[in-house]
Design brief:
The protein has about 110 residues and is of the alpha+beta class. The protein is built from 1 helix and 6 strands, in the order αββββββ. A hairpin with a 5-residue loop joins strand 5 and strand 6. The longest helix has 20 residues.
Length: about 110
């Protein structure tokens, strides 16, 4: 009898542990606004090779009844499906928001507020 109780408790604790360790699921969101920041002019002159320019976007995304102000830095073209009013799948983790791209790959945005 004690063996059955022990086995049942072990299975219960294992199930609870697995349930708690799973990542939160993506939830629906909507891009409220998206603005590309102007690039700062390079200061001074140099013969050194320049890095590939980085574009910065201020993106407001609404999900779960909250609107998050985020910033996104990109060295490549912006996902064409990201535009004001578009639906996206998002996951909030602390000070970061992950937004699924059209390819299904998540992109990290920093939450400002």
């Amino acid at each position: 009898m004690k063996w059955h109780v022990s086995a049942t408790l072990a299975v219960l604790f294992l199930a609870v542990g697995i349930g708690l360790s799973q990542e939160p699921a993506y939830q629906p969101g909507k891009i409220v606004s998206m603005h590309k920041r102007e690039r700062a002019s390079p200061m001074g002159g140099t013969d050194a090779a320049t890095n590939r320019p980085e574009d910065t976007y201020d993106v407001s995304i609404e999900t779960g009844g909250k609107t998050y102000e985020t910033v996104y830095h990109s060295h490549s073209d912006l996902d064409p499906t990201w535009a004001q009013g578009k639906d996206v799948e998002v996951q909030v983790k602390g000070k970061a928001m992950y937004v699924k791209r059209s390819t299904g790959k998540p992109t990290k945005l920093a939450i400002l507020k």
